[in-house]
Amino acid sequence: MSDRKSAARVPLVLIVDDDFTTALTLQGLLQGAGLATLLAGSLAEADALFHAQPIALVLLDVHLPDGYGLDLCRKLTAVSPVPILFISGDGDVATKTGGFAAGGVDYITKPLAGAEVLARVRTHLRLSAARESLAALHAERIARLSTAQQSLMARPEDLPQARFAVSIRQVLQAGGDFYDVIPVGDRIVDYVVADASGHDLGVSLWTASFKTLLAEYVSAVDAPLDTCRAINDSLRRVLPDGAYFTVLYARLERGAKRLTLVYAGHPPAILVSGRNDEGRLLEQDGDLLGIFADAAFGVMTVPVQAGDRLYLYTDGLIEMHGSREDGCERALAACRPAAALPLQDAVMAVVDTICGGLEPQDDIILLGVDV
After folding, report:
1. What pairs with residue 180 in β-bridges?
2. Is pTM, for the whole model, over 0.90?
3. pLDDT at residue 96 in the model
């Protein structure tokens, strides 16, 4: 192993104490144990060193010439998970509890016992390393889950005859929003956008179940309403109490110039005319999918023609600002000027316009379809 790699593995401890003797004593103790150290005699110096070096742990005095160590602790822990251990001659209970409230992980009173300091430093370095390893493991698992979830969703390049494009923005790397595109006959394609209840990673697992049910029930001989009813019956058997999907199921029959929509508690589709770029919300009520045995779904059939453009989306797109109704109107307003753009550019432009540079608080899927 190179010297550079070896050095990178040595934890760097920042010692912040205005008492030079104490600082040198701690430095000798830690360096003797194989740790690297930096010394700071003030809050300002400590702040500068902290942001200039990859600090693994901080030993921080409570009282320093230019301020209170607890204030620096709050500042550092707000931007970093680095463990901060207070060292102080102040053994007052209120000061100790204040140190923990500020984000410190330990409090060692002076006079310092070398063996105790070293034991506590090693313990918190091990805990910090364990948390980092666990976080890296979780990130890897989430990335795998996200990749698996993305593989469940159809890609425009694999289904050019479906003439669709999609924009996805996820708050988590994997979540409960889902779409599918399924050719079912000659110039007949089904487009499905769904949103599972909840906002944690666990709901992403239900999207795999939903995909499986779509593959089982979707066919040219079954109407979209019948398919939704069949999926509802199956979901009621497997979803936990309180879990559900909102769904918008669209069947586009290009030959017959007909669009059929089935609503299960989902936001309205948007249809933009190819003649005059005028758009409208296609609104229908409908029960949620996966809860009621006798669920009633909203059904709508509308005529379409070549050049029209259809948009299906999840509620994250319309709930960023204000009410759901206002959000739908904003989405409609964003879709109209995008009619002149190529489809992929259009869906990206609509999402960018609505988000306005803000990070979404909920997952977003916008699926655009050229009739």
Report:
1. 192
2. no
3. 92
